[in-house]
TrEMBL record:
GO terms classed as biological process: methylation
Classification lineage: Bacteria, Bacillati, Bacillota, Bacilli, Bacillales
Name of the featured protein: Methyltransferase family protein
Alphabetical UniProt keywords: Methyltransferase, Transferase
Record keyword Transferase present: yes
Pfam families: Methyltransf_11
Length: 264
C-alpha cells in the first residue's frame, strides 16, 4: 500500500534516522531493571516475560531491546529500514535474537492470526488518516485475552503546540474532527537542526477523535484496561515554551486494551 501517506512517512523517518533523531537512537545502556522502568510496565499492568510481543511502528532499537531483556519473544514491525537496522544493532549489542519486518501499520497480513500476546505501539497512530484500519489489523493478529498498548496525540489538542500562547492561554484554533491534516515544526530536542545535512520535512499527522477510536476498538472486541493522560513538568518553564504547554494541556494519551472477541 505505497500511497502518498506511505511515501511521505517513509521518506521522513529515513531522514530522521540519518540525522540520529531522538527516537532513532538505540538504547544500549539498559538492564532488566531499567528496561522495566523505561517501559513503565508496573503502572500499565503488563508482564512481558515469555510473551510474544510485536513492537508495532516501533523501530529504533529502544522498546524492542527493553522487551527482549525482560524475556519476551520480540518482533519489530516498522516502515523505515534504517529504524529496523537500529533494532538489530541493539539486539546484537545485548546478544539477543529478535525478528524485524518492514511494512505499513495498515497492513499486517505478513503475520498469521493469533500471533501475539502483546502489541506495543508507541506514538505513531496519528501518522495515518484512519486508526480504525490499524485496529482491525491488530485484532486479527492478537490472541484472545492479549493486550494492545498504544500512545497517540490527545485528540482534542492535536496540532496545538506552545506556539499557540496568546499571552493568557493556549488558543485552540481548529475544529475537533477526524482526519484533519495537521503539521508543525519539529521541536529542537528531536534532532540537531543546525547540523542536519538537509532539511527534513515537518511531520504530517491526522486528527483522530476519541469517540471514533474508542468505538472502533469496542467494535473489534477490545475492552479498556488502562487509560492515562500524559503531561510533563519541566522546572523553570515559562508560558509560551514547550515545558509550560505540556504541563497545562496533556498533549498525549495512552491506553491498554484487552482483546476479548467472545464479548463481541
Amino acid at each position: 500500500m505505497q500511497d502518498n501517506v506511505y511515501k511521505y512517512n517513509f521518506a521522513r523517518w529515513e531522514s530522521l534516522a540519518r540525522e540520529k533523531a531522538l527516537f532513532t537512537r538505540p538504547r544500549l545502556d539498559l538492564t532488566p531493571e531499567s528496561a522495566r522502568e523505561y517501559l513503565e510496565l508496573e503502572r500499565l499492568g503488563i508482564e512481558p516475560a515469555g510473551k510474544r510481543v510485536l513492537c508495532l511502528a516501533s523501530g529504533g532499537g529502544q522498546q524492542s531491546a527493553a522487551f527482549a531483556l525482560l524475556g519476551a519473544d520480540v518482533t519489530v514491525f516498522d516502515l523505515s529500514p534504517s529504524q529496523l537496522e537500529r533494532d538489530q544493532a541493539a539486539a546484537d549489542h545485548y546478544g539477543m535474537k529478535i525478528r524485524t519486518q518492514q511494512g505499513d501499520m495498515r497492513d499486517l497480513s505478513c503475520f498469521e492470526a493469533d500471533s501475539f500476546d502483546l502489541v506495543w505501539q508507541p506514538y505513531s497512530l496519528n501518522f495515518v488518516p484512519d486508526s480504525r484500519v490499524v485496529f482491525a489489523q491488530v485484532s486479527r493478529i492478537l490472541r484472545s485475552d492479549g493486550l494492545y498498548y498504544f500512545m497517540c496525540a490527545n485528540p482534542f489538542f492535536a496540532g496545538l503546540t506552545h506556539e499557540a500562547w496568546n499571552g493568557e492561554g493556549y488558543t485552540l484554533k481548529h475544529r475537533y474532527e477526524d482526519e484533519r491534516v495537521t503539521t508543525y515544526p519539529d521541536q529542537e530536542w528531536v534532532y540537531d537542526q543546525s547540523a542536519a545535512e538537509r532539511r527534513i520535512e515537518q511531520p504530517v499527522e491526522y486528527t483522530q477523535t476519541l469517540s471514533r477510536m474508542m468505538n472502533a476498538l469496542i467494535k473489534e472486541g477490545f475492552q479498556l484496561a488502562y487509560f492515562g493522560e500524559i503531561t510533563s513538568d519541566y522546572p523553570g518553564s515559562q508560558p509560551g515554551d514547550w515545558g509550560h504547554f505540556t504541563s497545562i494541556a496533556p498533549p498525549w494519551i495512552e491506553s491498554v486494551w484487552r482483546y476479548a472477541p467472545r464479548t463481541r
